[in-house]
Inverse folding.
């Protein structure tokens, strides 16, 4: 909210001329602003469906394409924040809204993200006829869906866990709902929200790349960006250009981490609600740079003051709050509550019936069974991958995690790879498969976990490095070795972390299946049998009932998996193995 | 005398218990706070005293009855009342100054005035030089001072305090208490009354003009004691000790025992029913207390304030122990004294195995819940039962949380006594030695 630390700046008042840091920081701000403005103009250029947007493979264009990609990402992020602040807050404050919003987000979370893209792109194109804004919006919406649910759920949970006494203090001091939101809810959730945002953005890079090159109704739309660049490079079998694109992405993610994420994390340290200063503070050169400037800092205070004024606006001021709100007879209250529940249930039923009608009017019932069969195949892939990955990465992660000096180097790398869009590497694998004529049904499978495995890695490392040192000493002291040591200490100790990682990885694998089960290299097209390939193929053909069926089935699979396997495991891990 | 500032008329509060039952937390509370008074509400933990304070503050509505503030019914937080919290409730992301300004900000007071008033309040409470510090940089005592400054800066008529010193160490608390008293007596603030909740008897006697002693289960007013000792009070003054003893006696005597006391008879041990809110005490603690009692220098009898002092326990730690000892007939509490019984002596002088046997017998005899669980398990063909079964039974008498606490307390005693076993993972209770 406010970047200022202390307001007793009288000492500095006399010396208001800019210093050298101001110059650097100003240059930095202007550059960013200029680039964003240029990009915004490019986004709304005229466009007709079927028109081919010229996309040059010239590597000099890559920085510009990268900028377009980043811009989509940031816009989606902005909307994700808006969504989070409105809907999550609403759900946290109103039990009635909660009953709809939370299950809704829960279901939306399990819908494959590229599914949103397949369904919405046509609608968006119609919304902005004759402009590139349509496809742009569809891509942005897809990225939005990869971030918003996660962020909103996290925010909702933290807002609800604001300590009771803080809430009472706010009541006692007559804070208005608006003041309460900015003074208590948002700051309290800030560290968690930022962490969630970082995780969401990691997923976002994957989908931003995927959603730039969309095939819809046999038309390929290429939005200028790194994703499209690589799609064209694949068509032309140009390995060198693919390497350039990967390198660019590498730099982009590095910059994003340094310029956006780290400063935010360093800044959010002060919102940590533990009352003692514990860990080492996160360092960010950007924050340090701005804290050393003089004029810009001054502006910072001004902005902070405007922000304060906004929070304290009179229109939002509370009248006397009455705790005895319900003047209605309790009987009426009950009736309203029941009516509300009935309405919710009816809405859900109508939606299901509508979806079923839409699907079954166009598709014979028998093919539904086939789709479920495909779902089982993809599910099998996901399970096998998670098991294989765990067998490999858990020992490695533990080895790393128990050595702090190694972990310090490896941990950021693992996090970096988790953020890196793995689909950029797909062509490299595909090339090998094509070259050696390998069976796509088996060899395309690892692609699904290429990006998601890193979640297991860095969670296991985190878990292992947090194993209490005295427990490790005790175990050594009693000479407990090898398998016994693993069974009684290490595995239970890292279990909650491992489960968190595995849940994220499995979710990522399901999402990636749509991209990974159908891949292309030049004119060669490799298809594996599975639900992902099914959705992907009908999306390019533009056949909506089939897309809807495929997505619904995948959604059901993910939901069932979450309910039957992951959630119970998570609860179990939390109850039994949480080391406090 | 002028009209009271705060007046409570027949205030009741009940919460939803299990599916069927409403749990009565506060029953028929009537009292008033007069102009210029410091009043302490004193009670054991779980007696509903904090709930009462929140009802007075307008934070939660009473189920029945009305709170009047200066003649007006309270229906929400009122401008004239301000509150200090047990856990300070400071916003960690705001500096001391910003925290203090918070209440003024909500009132829509402009920047300049806000700053001036906040600095004045900080000055008054002795936080000079810490204006730009974050709460996490401060010690507990300093944090609570911020809590006081924040409460006082809005110029309240009445100050409400919810166990304001209980999270602080003894020295810091004493220091803060005397500063608060000085501030109150100097009349530098616009305060016309202070109402605070505490479980610390000496604290109440030290600060208050009146002590409202609370009964538990359901919370109701036991006694309204007026203290006339002049300030500053000293805790070694015999008159001060007398008052402390008097409150101890009040708090350890059940209302039904009072009759007998008045008739000059020794009251019997406490008898309880199956849904009794068992005290939160563990076996090691009561054994320790019995050992202290049985030590030659005490010879089986001690003054409760001395016990609290020697073992450095506050009443929320001490009373559950004395209550359990009384229930189990290991000791007798009356008139502020605790005396070991024959059985208590036998228990404490036995070896570990013998102790378990005595404890087990007494548990079956005097704790109906333990007896019930044991009987159920004995009658069950495979000597097993789910904990949910007993939980739902307890929820007829207690809130969900309390039911769970009571069951786990009795399970812990039962395990020690080897009366029954419990499996954490499955939640199954079973007989240790079937048959």
């Amino acid at each position: 909210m406010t970047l200022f630390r202390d307001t007793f700046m009288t000492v500095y008042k006399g010396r208001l001329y800019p210093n050298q840091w101001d110059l650097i920081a100003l240059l930095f701000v202007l550059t960013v602003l200029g680039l964003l403005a240029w990009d915004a103009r490019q986004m709304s250029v005229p466009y007709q469906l079927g028109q081919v947007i010229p996309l040059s493979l010239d590597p000099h264009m890559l920085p510009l394409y990268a900028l377009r990609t980043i811009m989509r990402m940031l816009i989606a992020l902005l909307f994700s924040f808006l969504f989070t602040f409105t809907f999550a807050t609403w759900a946290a404050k109103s039990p009635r809204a909660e009953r709809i919003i939370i299950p809704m987000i829960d279901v939306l979370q399990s819908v494959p993200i590229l599914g949103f893209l397949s369904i919405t792109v046509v609608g968006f194109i119609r919304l902005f006829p004759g402009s590139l804004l349509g496809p742009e919006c569809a891509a942005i919406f897809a990225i939005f869906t990869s971030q918003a649910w996660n962020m909103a759920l996290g925010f909702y949970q933290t807002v609800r866990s604001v300590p009771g006494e803080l809430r009472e203090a706010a009541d006692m001091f007559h804070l208005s709902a608006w003041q309460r939101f900015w003074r208590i809810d948002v700051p309290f959730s800030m560290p968690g929200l930022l962490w969630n945002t970082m995780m969401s953005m990691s997923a976002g890079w994957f989908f931003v790349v995927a959603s730039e090159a969309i095939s819809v109704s046999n038309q390929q739309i290429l939005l200028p960006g790194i994703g499209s660049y690589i799609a064209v490079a694949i068509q032309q079998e140009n390995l060198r250009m693919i390497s350039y694109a990967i390198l660019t992405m590498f730099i982009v993610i590095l910059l994003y981490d340094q310029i956006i994420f780290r400063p935010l994390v360093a800044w959010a340290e002060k919102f940590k609600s533990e009352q003692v200063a514990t860990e080492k503070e996160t360092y960010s050169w950007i924050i340090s740079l701005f804290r050393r400037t003089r004029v810009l800092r001054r502006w910072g205070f001004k902005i902070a003051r405007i922000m304060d004024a906004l929070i304290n606006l009179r229109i939002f001021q509370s009248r006397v709050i009455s705790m005895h709100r319900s003047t209605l007879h309790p009987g009426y209250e009950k009736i309203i509550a029941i009516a509300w529940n009935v309405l919710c249930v009816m809405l859900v039923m109508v939606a299901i019936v509508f979806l079923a009608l839409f699907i079954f009017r166009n598709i014979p019932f028998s093919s539904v069974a086939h789709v479920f069969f495909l779902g089982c195949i993809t599910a099998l892939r996901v399970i096998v991958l998670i098991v294989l990955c765990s067998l490999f990465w858990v020992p490695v992660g533990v080895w790393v995690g128990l050595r702090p000096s190694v972990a310090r180097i490896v941990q950021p790398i693992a996090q970096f790879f988790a953020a890196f869009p793995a689909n950029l590497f797909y062509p490299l694998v595909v090339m090998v498969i094509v070259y050696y004529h390998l069976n796509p049904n088996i060899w395309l499978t690892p692609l699904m976990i290429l990006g998601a495995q890193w979640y297991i890695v860095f969670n296991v490392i985190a878990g292992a490095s947090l194993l209490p040192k005295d427990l490790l000493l005790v175990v050594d002291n009693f000479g407990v070795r090898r398998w016994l040591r693993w069974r009684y200490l290490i595995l239970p100790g890292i279990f909650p972390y491992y489960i968190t990682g595995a849940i994220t990885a499995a979710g990522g694998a399901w999402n990636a299946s749509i991209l990974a089960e159908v891949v292309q290299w030049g004119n060669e097209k490799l298809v594996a049998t599975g639900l992902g390939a099914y959705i992907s193929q009908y999306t390019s053909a533009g056949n909506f009932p089939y897309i809807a069926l495929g997505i619904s089935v995948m959604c059901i699979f993910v939901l069932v998996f979450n309910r039957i396997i992951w959630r119970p495991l998570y609860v179990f891990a939390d109850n039994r193995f949480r080391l406090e | 005398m002028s009209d009271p500032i705060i007046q409570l008329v027949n205030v009741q509060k009940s919460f939803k218990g299990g599916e069927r039952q409403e749990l009565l937390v506060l029953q028929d509370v009537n009292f008033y706070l007069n102009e210029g008074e410091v009043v302490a509400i004193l009670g054991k933990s779980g007696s509903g005293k904090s709930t009462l304070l929140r009802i007075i503050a307008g934070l939660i509505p009473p189920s029945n009855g009305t709170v009047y503030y200066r003649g007006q019914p309270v229906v929400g937080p009122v401008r004239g009342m301000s509150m200090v919290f047990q856990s300070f409730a400071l916003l960690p992301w705001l500096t001391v100054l910003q925290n203090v300004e918070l209440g003024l900000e909500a009132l829509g007071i402009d920047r300049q005035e806000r700053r001036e008033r906040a600095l004045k309040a900080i000055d008054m409470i002795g936080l000079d030089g810490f204006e730009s510090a974050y709460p996490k940089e401060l010690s507990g005592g300093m944090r609570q001072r911020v809590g006081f400054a924040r409460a006082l800066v809005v110029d309240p008529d009445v100050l409400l305090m919810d166990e304001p010193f209980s999270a602080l160490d003894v020295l810091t608390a004493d220091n803060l208490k005397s500063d608060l008293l000085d501030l109150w007596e100097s009349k530098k603030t616009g305060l016309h009354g202070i109402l605070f909740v505490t479980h610390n008897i000496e604290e109440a006697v030290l600060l208050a003009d009146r002590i409202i002693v609370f009964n538990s289960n359901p919370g109701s007013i036991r006694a309204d004691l007026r203290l006339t000792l002049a300030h500053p009070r000293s805790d070694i003054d015999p008159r001060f000790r007398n008052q402390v003893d008097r409150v101890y006696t009040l708090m350890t005597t059940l209302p039904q025992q009072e009759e007998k006391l008045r008739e000059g008879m020794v009251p019997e041990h406490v008898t309880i029913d199956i849904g009794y809110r068992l005290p939160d005490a563990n076996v090691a603690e009561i054994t320790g207390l019995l050992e202290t009692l049985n030590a030659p220098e005490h010879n089986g009898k001690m003054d409760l304030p001395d016990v609290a002092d020697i073992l450095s326990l506050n009443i929320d730690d001490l009373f559950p122990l004395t209550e359990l000892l009384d229930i189990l007939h290991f000791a007798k509490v009356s008139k502020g004294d605790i005396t070991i019984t024959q059985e208590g002596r036998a228990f404490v002088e036995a070896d570990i195995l013998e102790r378990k046997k005595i404890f087990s017998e007494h548990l079956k005899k005097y704790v109906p819940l333990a007896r019930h669980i044991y009987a159920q398990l004995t009658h069950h063909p495979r000597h097993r039962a789910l904990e949910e079964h007993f939980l739902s039974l307890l929820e007829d008498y207690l809130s969900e949380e309390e039911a769970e606490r009571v069951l786990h307390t009795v399970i812990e005693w039962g395990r020690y006594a080897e009366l029954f076993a419990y499996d954490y993972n499955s939640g199954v209770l079973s007989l240790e030695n079937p048959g």
Q: What stands out?
A: Residues 6-251 of chain B form a domain with the Rossmann fold fold (CATH 3.40.50.300).
